[in-house]
Write a structure and sequence with these properties.
The complex is a heterodimer of chains A (172) and B (391).
Chain A lengths: L3 H8 L12 E7 L4 E10 L2 E10 L2 H14 L4 H4 L4 H7 L8 H22 L22 E2 L4 E2 L21
Antiparallel strand pairs in A: 1-2, 2-3, 4-5
Helix pairs in contact in A: 1-2, 2-5, 4-5
Chain B lengths: L3 E2 L10 H13 L9 H20 L8 E4 L2 H15 L6 E5 L4 H11 L4 E5 L9 H7 L4 E5 L13 H10 L3 E5 L11 H4 L3 E5 L10 E5 L25 H39 L3 E4 L9 E6 L4 H10 L2 E2 L1 E2 L12 H5 L4 H5 L1 E5 L6 H19 L3 H8 L1
Parallel strand pairs in B: 1-11, 3-4, 3-5, 5-6, 6-7
Antiparallel strand pairs in B: 2-8, 7-8, 9-10, 10-13, 12-13
Helix pairs in contact in B: 1-8, 2-8, 3-4, 5-6, 8-12, 9-12
Classes of the chains: A alpha+beta (172), B alpha/beta (391).
């Protein structure tokens, strides 16, 4: 199911851990959807000097986090901004289609961490930003997942992104 | 290192006796049981011998009450849709529970598109249906109650006999999906009082591609597959004789070994649950502590996700199943776990460990060791775990 690179990063994840004195923190995801990702960055001279992650999620989510931190480490903020879900997925030699949302999650977490760092630098004092609720609940049973960028099927009883119940009854 | 299969509910090995019987059947080139010549008659004889063995496993009053199908799923579809169509003149209301298998769930959803109405009763924290709720849900339009026997995700066994008492009294037909139970524990259709019961050969070391549907004498679901007069006109299509022969042998051995099998499984289950409780903190054992399948344990391991646990165990050559949304193609949490009140995140970290006659105590111990390691590894990188421990 997974490429060798994915399995390597899953089994030997790089840069695991919390960073108490991080300059920027990015948190995305929701356990309902199956993933939660925290990215911590330490910035020096406009360069990501150190980066750590904590992830709750499947093999793909963990591998994405690990690969992402490896790609971002040592990069200038400007270059790190160019890391996209696509480049992470490519570096992992591909992900199964239904796991592509994991790579979107990873790129979002990094961008949020960078934004947090810049906000702090600009003197905006606030708690680490949460991922924006970018998705909408459409009428009826379906719901759009922003990470998969697809309409979820009629079988969904709840939104896999935020957990909103789309009708409590199994039969309705 | 040999692979340890603790995912028996997904696949379990064909018994050597089953393999031999099936290979012999392949070599023998049996005729078509529908043919009137000698080759056909010999095939009929073999077919009916297998039917007797499979019927005895669930204690049918007569082997003719057993119809061979292609799978447990087909049996369930046949029972539910077949009765719904046959009884549409009487009413279009069906009662079920919130924790049924997808074969039941989706059959009913299909019927709802054809103007049938479904009432689904909820279950308690152990996954048990309250028979009173069934009685209360009955209307003049009710034609069928379908409640599973043993749950394939959490193991809970429903009070089938008590429910059957209600359906008999109210003259409603009762189907039970017993796919996870037959061959694993004693099932007696006459004792239970059901009108229809579905099961599958690959749950008891028989081949996949063969299932059974018990249809009590006098009950007539509409056939789903039309064609020839096979299976007394109840299921057309030339019989899967090789598979059915395998099922017959597997059923015969299950019947004879039943007591030992249950005792063996119970011992392993006790050892596993004890080991889990002793070695891993923050876990929830799902299902009823007493009314439960002997060969299955469901455990929610908090703060980590199921697919990643399965992958880590697979590296150690241990196969288990998970009910996490990530591992399911649909990316959604199990309706069974949500129905018994598990939080979404806890449902995500749920493993189903199932075993059988060839599982050894040392397999359970090796699994526990590997699981401990995997849990420590994954919790170490879990933001949920860090947060919980910081509080």
């Amino acid at each position: 199911m997974y490429s060798e690179v994915v399995m390597d990063h899953f089994k030997n994840p790089r840069n695991v851990g919390e960073m108490k004195d991080a300059d920027g923190v990015g948190e995305v995801g929701n356990p309902v959807c199956g993933d939660m990702m925290n990215i911590y960055i330490k910035v020096k001279d406009d360069r990501i000097e150190d980066i750590k992650f904590l992830t709750f999620g499947c093999g793909a989510a963990i591998a994405v986090s690990s690969m992402l931190t490896e790609m971002a480490k040592g990069k200038t903020i400007e270059d790190a901004r160019k890391i996209t879900n696509k480049s992470v997925a490519e570096a992992l030699e591909g992900l199964p289609k239904n796991k592509l949302h994991c790579s979107n999650l990873g790129a979002d977490a990094l961008q949020l961490a960078i934004k947090d760092y810049e906000d702090k630098k600009a003197g905006k004092v606030k708690s680490p930003p949460k991922a924006e609720d970018k998705h909408e609940h459409t009428k009826g049973d379906t719901c759009r997942c922003p990470y998969c960028d697809t309409d979820l099927g009629e079988a969904m009883e709840f939104c896999s992104n935020c957990g909103k119940d789309l009708g409590k009854e199994i039969f309705k | 290192m040999n692979t340890i299969n603790l995912d028996y509910i997904s696949a379990n090995p064909l018994l050597p006796e089953v393999q031999e019987a099936m290979i012999e059947a392949i070599k023998k080139n049996h005729g078509n049981p529908s043919s009137p010549h000698q080759l056909g008659e010999q095939a009929t004889e073999v077919l009916e011998q297998a039917r007797e063995k499979a019927a005895r496993l669930i204690n049918c009053a007569s082997p003719q009450e057993l119809v061979f199908t292609s799978s447990g799923t087909e049996s369930i579809n046949h029972a539910i849709k077949g009765i719904a169509l046959a009884k549409a003149g009487k009413g279009k209301h069906i009662i079920t529970s919130n924790i049924e298998h997808n074969a039941v769930l989706k059959s009913l959803r299909r019927l709802m598109k054809m103007d049938y109405r479904v009432t689904s009763v909820s279950v308690n924290e152990y996954g048990l249906v309250n028979p009173d709720d069934i009685a209360k849900a009955v209307t003049d339009e009710t034609i069928l109650v379908t409640i599973m026997h043993g749950n394939n995700e959490i193991g809970t066994i429903q009070p089938i006999k008590e429910i059957a008492r209600i359906t008999r009294e109210k003259d409603i037909l009762f189907h039970s999906d017993a796919v996870a139970s037959v061959g694993v524990m004693p099932i007696d259709v006459q004792y239970l009082g059901v009108d229809l019961l579905s099961f599958s050969s690959n749950q008891f070391n028989g081949p996949s591609g063969v299932g059974g549907l018990y249809i009590r004498r006098g009950v007539s679901p509409l056939p789903l597959i039309d064609g020839g007069a096979q299976e007394d006109g109840r299921r057309a299509g030339t019989e899967n004789l090789i598979g059915i022969i395998g099922m017959g042998v597997a059923a015969d051995i299950a019947f004879r070994e039943m007591e030992c099998r249950v005792e063996h499984a119970r011992k392993l289950k006790d050892r596993l649950i004890r080991g889990l409780k002793e070695s891993i903190e923050d876990i929830i054992i799902n299902g009823h502590p007493e009314f439960s399948l002997p060969n299955l344990v469901s455990v929610s391991i908090r703060y980590i996700e199921g697919e990643s646990i399965v992958l880590m165990l697979d590296e150690k050559n241990i196969a288990v199943s998970t009910r996490s949304a990530c591992a399911s193609g649909a990316l959604r949490a199990s309706h069974v776990l949500l129905s018994i009140g598990r939080e979404y995140a806890d449902a995500q970290g749920t493993l189903v460990i199932s075993f059988g006659r060839d599982t050894k105590e040392s397999d359970i111990d090796r699994f526990l060791d590997a699981l401990r390691e995997a849990v420590e590894f994954l919790r170490n990188m879990s933001p949920l775990y860090k947060k919980a421990k910081a509080e």
